[in-house]
């Protein structure tokens, strides 16, 4: 980061509204890289004050773990990762454990700052405008039911046969769906997982 960049950043600290969540986090990472490099070469580098950026991130609800600054991974104290493949970041204030896999916040590590910021940014974009409409949700639930019915067909006469389809993400154009099916009983555990992309305009899967 050049001196000009540094003084511009300093100026903007005094006008916090000018920062977005992404900008504050990007800048924190850039500063951290400088410190991390210095640490790697056994130099001491105490000149950087992370606090103003941490304060901005706190305003967005993200508490940076100060012990992770200067390390290769920056973490946050108020989010944790669970064992799930999707939606694995949880806000500790809202959820002490994951309702899907049951992992408790004390059992698993704090989340990575960049992943939390990505998630918050995606969520706020969704709130801004591309959220699913009621008619889309209705069509989607019909589609998911059909997926489950078709997948369950092969297993319906088997003890422990199941099929479950869920939406795990979406954007302006695409809805991401996960289908799990197979047999789960005392003597068998066979689970197949398939992910599908559904085009919102047609509610049909694409390749
Ligand atoms: Zn989970």
Secondary structure: helix percent: 25-40%
- Low-pLDDT regions: none
Mean pLDDT: 87
- Radius of gyration, in Å, reads 22 Å
N-to-C SSE string, H for helix and E for strand: HHHEEEHHEEEE
Calculate the terminal CA-CA distance, rounded to whole Å: 43 Å
Tally of domains: 2
- What is the number of strand segments? 7
Strand content: 15-25%
Give the strand line-up of the largest sheet: 4-5-6-7
Query: What is the 3D shape?
Result: elongated
Going by helix content, strand content and strand pairing, the class is alpha+beta
Largest sheet: 4 strands, antiparallel
What bound compounds does this protein have?
A: zinc ion
What's the number of helices?
5
What's the layout of helices and strands?
Blueprint: H1 3-13, H2 21-40, H3 51-59, E1 75-81, E2 89-91, E3 110-112, H4 113-130, H5 134-153, E4 161-170, E5 174-184, E6 189-199, E7 204-206
Antiparallel strand pairs: 1-2, 1-3, 4-5, 5-6, 6-7
Helix pairs in contact: 2-3, 2-4
Bound molecules: zinc ion.
Zinc ion binds at residues 82-84, 88, 98, 100-101, 103.
């Amino acid at each position: 980061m050049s001196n000009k960049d540094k003084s511009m950043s300093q100026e903007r600290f005094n006008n916090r509204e000018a920062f977005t969540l992404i900008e504050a986090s990007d800048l924190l990472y850039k500063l951290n890289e400088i410190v991390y490099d210095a640490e790697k070469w056994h130099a001491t580098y105490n000149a950087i004050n992370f606090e103003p950026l941490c304060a901005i991130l706190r305003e967005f609800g993200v508490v940076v773990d100060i012990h992770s600054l200067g390390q290769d991974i920056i973490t946050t104290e108020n989010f944790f990762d669970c064992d799930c493949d999707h939606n694995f970041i949880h806000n500790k204030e809202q959820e002490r454990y994951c309702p899907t896999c049951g992992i408790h916040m004390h059992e698993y590590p704090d989340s990575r700052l960049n992943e939390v910021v990505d998630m918050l940014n995606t969520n706020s974009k969704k709130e801004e405008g591309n959220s699913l409409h009621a008619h889309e949700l209705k069509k989607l639930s019909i589609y998911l039911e059909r997926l489950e019915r078709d997948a369950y067909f092969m297993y319906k006469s088997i003890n422990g046969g199941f099929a479950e389809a869920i939406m795990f993400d979406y954007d302006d154009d695409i809805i991401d769906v996960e289908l799990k099916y197979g047999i789960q009983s005392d003597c068998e555990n066979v689970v197949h997982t398939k992910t599908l992309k559904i085009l919102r305009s047609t509610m049909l899967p694409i390749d």
